[in-house]
Amino acid sequence: MTNLGTPVPFLVIFLFILEKLKKATLTVTASLLLLPGSSPLLSSERLETATVQPVVSLKTTPEVVQGTETKYWTCPGCTEVENKVLRAFQERGITDKVALAVLMGNIKQESKFITTICEGGVKTGYHACHRGGFGLIQWTTVGRYDGLGRVARQYKLDPNSLDAQLRWLFSEREWRVVEHRFKRTGMSSQYYMNAAYSWLGWGVYGARGTYARQYESFIRMPA
Question: Is the dihedral of CA 187, 193, 198, 200 positive or negative?
Fold first, then answer.
C-alpha cells in the first residue's frame, strides 16, 4: 500500500519558502521606491497621484482677472491731443470730472494744446522761443524751460512733442506738490482752480473758468 502521509512535510516546507520569497520581493520593491533624494512614495498609487498633479501658477495678471476693466472719461469732438492729455491725467489717478475739466481749461488758456507755441501765440518750437513761456503749460522760468529740454534728451524725445512735455509736466516739483489736491473727489470747481493757480502761477486769469465749464459739459464716460 502506498504511504500518502510522506509528502506532507515537503509541502509545508515548500509553502514556507514561497512565503519568504514574497516578503523579500516586497522589501526590494519598497527600497527601489525610496531612492536617495526622492520623495517617500510607498506605492504605485501614490506615485501615480504625484505625477498627475497640475502646476498651479500664483501669478495674477489683468488678463485673467474678470470684471476689472478701467473706463476713462473722453471728450467727444475734442482733438486727439486734448484726449491724450485727458487720458494722461486719469492715468495719474485723477478721476473727478470737475477736476479734469479745470485742468483741461487751464491748459487751453495757456497754450490751446499747441505744444510748439511760444508766448504771444507764435509757433516757434522749443529752440526758437527766447522770451516768455513755451509749450503746453507755458513753462516760463529758465529752470522750468531747461528742465523740459533735459527730460527730452534723457528719453531721446523731441521737446516739442506731447510725450516729452507730459513727462516733464508730471515730474516737475510744481506739479507733484499739488497733484494730491486734484485726486480728491467731490470738491468744487473753485477748489480745483485754486490748486491750478498753485501749480501754474498765472499772471492773467483769462477764460480759464469758461473753458473749464465747457469741458465739464463736453467730457463723457463711455457706456
Answer: positive
pLDDT digits (tens, 9 = 90+) for 137-184: 999 999 999 999 999 999 999 999 999 999 999 999 999 999 999 999
Give the residue numbers spanning the domain of 128: 80-218
Cβ atoms of 75 and 219 within 8 Å: the answer is yes
CA 131 to chain centre: 39
Residue-wise DSSP of 128-158: G--SS-BTTTTB-SHHHHHHHHHHHHHTT--
Total-model pTM: 0.70
Do residues 124 and 150 make contact, with C-beta atoms less than 8 angstroms apart?
Answer: no
Does 46 fall in a domain? no
Number of domains in the chain: 1
Measure the CA dihedral 177/180/183/186, to 10°: -110
